[in-house]
């Protein structure tokens, strides 16, 4: 069953739910007229449906492989990547100065979701390049920018991120890779990095690594980290890849999913690199791109969720099994099948609206420089990441269930979505870390950003009172509960009492925001499926809120009373 | 990290939570003295830890394969199976008349869980034999019993269940396989069956199929189905496998998990079989064993959950990453890691207690013939099946999350639990069908069985008032909410309004039962981990109840208002 990019859904959301007009009214994004937006969404749709989606199964069946030290990618992936590059899609949001289109991240988020729905394993490659482009735009010297950015934006070269080491996963400060000054402006990088996505491949002529490493005598911990750019092939004076660099692929990981995406162990043996940003400025550079990368990963979850939903719906429409109460001949007639599919769809809508509104806040921050937009973007980012990826996992899992026995037969394709999407809740900061970020750093403003979002929810509820009184009231009540929950967290003296409830709190926030967006959509299209989907969400999904907030406010006590060391011995 | 069978946990549960003394006080089960129970649990533990658990990864890496029409099983599986057979474990609950031990199903449930935790792919083989033994004990002629039961109980032969056909999955009534009377007491069976677990193998000398088929001129639907016994090798007059029968393996399925368990497409070409039970009595015979098989599958989920929990806990204990608020050096110091592991453990306890109390009710039904015990067993069965398998899936998924990036690397083993356990929510009646069974057939007594269980919850709450006043009150309130939810379902005129809320209702019931069992355990061991785990469940898991009951009572309306046909076109 082929994937169909949800182009008209994005149009509706951009117009009615996240107010793209506000973005395109700024000088920075004034070129993104409605016509341009429409044309771009349509083009992305063609690319994803026609060229990228057929690669999804290929990547799973024919994994990327290491042959004589070089990664050979899955059949068709090189052509698929070239189609993305030639469409100019690597540079959708990149600066026009280096060949980018300079369009809003909101549109780029739509691009990323549709590519992810079509083939997540391939989409990772351009996603990493996007992150590298952003990092270089903000932190690299003009010289480095001039050499690397045009190549990355055109897609001739691709980018990777090298943070993780065996002893340094979530704890980036434990990184041990060393950098020695060569005395000629370059550095010699030595160390091993793991989990390097698309660390090597045969789809483009060069691979450019951004590597976190430690200069001699640098302090321990994150403060001592610097960022280096290390190309696989060293460019000559004209920027043409010329001499091989001291970087090799040691092995590929054997993963649950994403078989088409080579996950490399990389060895740097005195590889030549150049500083990006200031010495010891590695974390600052990382943080610049991390927020957008996290949004990007949340968007991956939503893309897979959409694909898994379409796949399950198509199966349910065709499958006849048992008499149904409604007399419908397919299993769509069964209430529980509808409950599953409706819940999947309602959550996809919520997660997508949250991701787009996060992207919109980043765009507004960029366009206006406003601290308020920045705070809003920062607050929404961990929610978009964790809720988007949790939704991906939950929807893919429910998609298998809709298929019944066929769901676990690999040829059906439903199980692959589960396998592929699972890691999105882990990489780019586990969802637990997203929760800690939300209740820690993102509430460190005394709750200003949180309360401003809650206030907006109340405004939405107020505005919907006439058209949807019951749901408006439910949303209002939800906002009050969420406010109380937020106040409870803020009142805790021990930060660990916040951390204990961080994941349920994040989810509670997402539930309320999702309700708000559903209500906005229903107001824009009060008849038909939009309102029906909104009502289903209020009946089936929003009721989770009470339990989530109770969990969020139960503190660290019960968690630390349990003795895990006494067990299993 | 090796699996350790939770022997002492079972002892505690049997003694303090499900009251095995009540069972062993009956004449039927008087031989199951505490010494016998202890010795048996210990033996099972040795078998599972030492012999079966090492096969878990083997089965995944070296799947069962079809070679020249015969299934070759994974390395070590034959020896593992023989150890199970030679221990007499196939017949733990089988009648002594044919070589069984005649011990309570409650003990057999412990056996099944521990075998599943050690290696689910292998455990499926004896589980299927158990089901066949039970079916033959109840429905087969003395002649068939005499030939087949001793072989099945000794494990020399294994059993399979053949229900599903491509067009007949959950809708068993659509079965088309035909049976023609040979005029000599035997029948010629012709048709194709799919999803036949352990349909062929090399671990024992014969494979005995129970096949649902239709006699000539039989009515359509389930009423027209008869059950036949069809051995792979036809026994001679002395019961020795002699001539090949007309049954072949067409292919093996390529599955998400359980690679060590051969899932066969079977072709019957006029294969010789004999009636089990009356003509057109196939469904009656199926239903006899289906309840216990469903409990068995629920138990599989719990076994995998236990193994995944142990695996994740061992990883967390070892893994150092980041400064933790508690100063603990492993990631066990992080509140969210404790939240995940504590939730896993609390749910495993709840699911295990529910499964054991279901088994205990079946034992009491068998020992006393009481209709009340029968109704209780029937009511608990879909809850044990769905909650046990949902817990398996959720815990395995959380186990991957605890591992962080290592979780999706197959060598770690965490991901295999997810892949292996996924199908348990589907086979032996999807969990959606369990929900429909619960709110349909199992509430057709006007709620008598449900209210009797709720009354027991209230009694538990009352008894705990002094020792645990806050939790006793919470449990009492939960019982009231559950009663209201049950009354709401019973009051619906349209059965589909019940069906719409059936899955959340089932889960709500499990949540309350789980709370009850946790409280009982804490009362029996009021200090230390039992009480801490109970408090964690009340803080983190029980609060789901409100949302679940709201979902359960939202009716079919919102689900049918959504037009799935209008979408994606």
UniProtKB/TrEMBL annotation, chains A, B:
Domain of life of the source: Bacteria
Keyword match Protein transport: no
Group of enzyme by EC: oxidoreductase
Family listed: Belongs to the acyl-CoA dehydrogenase family.
All copies of domain Acetyl-CoA dehydrogenase-like C-terminal, residue ranges: 453-563
Phylogenetic lineage: Bacteria, Pseudomonadati, Pseudomonadota, Alphaproteobacteria, Rhodobacterales
Residue span(s) of domain Acyl-CoA dehydrogenase/oxidase N-terminal: 81-156
Naturally occurring in which organism (per UniProt): Meridianimarinicoccus roseus
Catalyzed reactions: 3-(methylsulfanyl)propanoyl-CoA + oxidized [electron-transfer flavoprotein] + H(+) = 3-(methylsulfanyl)acryloyl-CoA + reduced [electron-transfer flavoprotein]
Cofactor(s) annotated in UniProt: FAD
Protein known as: 3-methylmercaptopropionyl-CoA dehydrogenase
Keywords in alphabetical order: FAD, Flavoprotein, Oxidoreductase
Residue ranges of every copy of the Acyl-CoA dehydrogenase/oxidase C-terminal domain listed in the record: 281-438
Any one GO MF annotation of this record: oxidoreductase activity, acting on the CH-CH group of donors
Function: Involved in the assimilation of dimethylsulphoniopropionate (DMSP), an important compound in the fixation of carbon in marine phytoplankton, by mediating the conversion of 3-(methylthio)propanoyl-CoA (MMPA-CoA) to 3-(methylthio)acryloyl-CoA (MTA-CoA).
Enzyme Commission code: 1.3.99.41
Domain Acyl-CoA oxidase/dehydrogenase middle, chain residue ranges per copy: 161-269
């Amino acid at each position: 069953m082929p994937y169909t990019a949800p182009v008209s859904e994005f149009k509706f959301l951009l117009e009615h739910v996240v107010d793209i007009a506000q973005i395109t009214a700024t000088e920075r994004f004034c070129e993104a007229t409605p016509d341009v937006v429409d044309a771009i969404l349509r083009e992305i749709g063609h690319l994803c449906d026609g060229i990228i989606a057929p690669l999804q199964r290929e990547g799973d069946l024919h994994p990327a492989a290491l042959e004589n030290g070089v990664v050979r990618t899955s059949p068709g992936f090189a052509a698929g990547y070239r189609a993305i590059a030639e469409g100019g899609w690597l540079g959708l949001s990149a600066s026009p100065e280096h060949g980018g289109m300079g369009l809003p991240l909101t549109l780029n988020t739509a691009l990323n979701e549709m590519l992810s729905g079509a083939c997540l394993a391939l989409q990772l490659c351009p996603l990493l390049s996007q992150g590298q482009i952003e990092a270089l735009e903000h932190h690299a010297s003009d010289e480095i920018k001039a050499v690397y950015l045009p190549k990355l934006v055109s897609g001739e070269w691709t980018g990777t991120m090298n943070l993780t080491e065996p002893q340094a996963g979530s704890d980036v400060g434990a990184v041990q890779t060393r950098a020695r000054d060569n005395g000629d402006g370059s550095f010699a990088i030595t160390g091993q990095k793991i989990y390097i996505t698309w660390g090597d491949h045969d789809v483009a002529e060069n691979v450019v690594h951004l590597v976190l490493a430690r200069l001699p005598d640098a302090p321990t911990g994150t403060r001592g980290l610097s960022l280096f750019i290390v190309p696989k092939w060293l460019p000559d004076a004209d920027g043409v890849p010329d001499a091989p660099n001291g970087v090799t692929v040691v092995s590929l990981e054997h993963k649950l999913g994403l078989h088409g995406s080579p996950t490399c162990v990389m060895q740097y043996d005195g590889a030549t690199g150049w500083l990006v940003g200031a010495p010891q400025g590695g974390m600052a550079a990382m943080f610049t791109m991390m927020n957008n990368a996290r949004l990007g990963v949340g968007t991956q979850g939503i893309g897979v969720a959409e694909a898994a939903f379409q796949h399950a719906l198509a199966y349910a429409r065709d499958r006849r099994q048992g008499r149904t109460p409604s007399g419908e001949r397919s299993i769509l007639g069964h209430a529980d099948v509808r409950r599953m599919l409706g819940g999947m769809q309602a959550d996809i809508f919520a997660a997508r609206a949250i991701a787009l509104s996060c992207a919109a806040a980043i765009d507004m921050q960029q366009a206006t420089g406003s601290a308020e937009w920045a705070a809003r973007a920062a607050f929404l980012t961990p929610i978009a990441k964790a809720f988007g990826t949790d939704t991906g996992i939950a929807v893919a899992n429910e998609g298998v269930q809709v298929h019944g026995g066929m769901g676990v037969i690999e040829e059906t394709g439903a199980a692959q979505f589960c396998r592929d999407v699972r890691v999105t809740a882990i990489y780019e900061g586990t969802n637990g870390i997203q929760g800690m970020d939300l209740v820690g750093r993102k509430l460190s403003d005394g709750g200003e950003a949180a309360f401003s979002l809650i206030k907006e929810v109340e405004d939405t509820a107020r505005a919907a009172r006439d058209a949807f009184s019951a749901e408006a009231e439910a949303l209002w009540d939800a906002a009050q509960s969420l406010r109380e929950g937020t106040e409870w967290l803020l009142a805790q003296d021990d930060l660990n009492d916040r951390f204990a409830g961080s994941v349920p709190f994040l989810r509670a926030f997402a539930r309320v925001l999702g309700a708000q967006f559903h209500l906005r959509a229903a107001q824009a299209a009060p008849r038909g499926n939009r309102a029906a989907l909104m009502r289903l969400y209020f009946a089936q999904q929003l009721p989770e809120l009470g339990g989530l907030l109770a969990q969020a406010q139960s503190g660290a006590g019960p968690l630390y009373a349990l003795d895990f060391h006494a067990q299993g011995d």
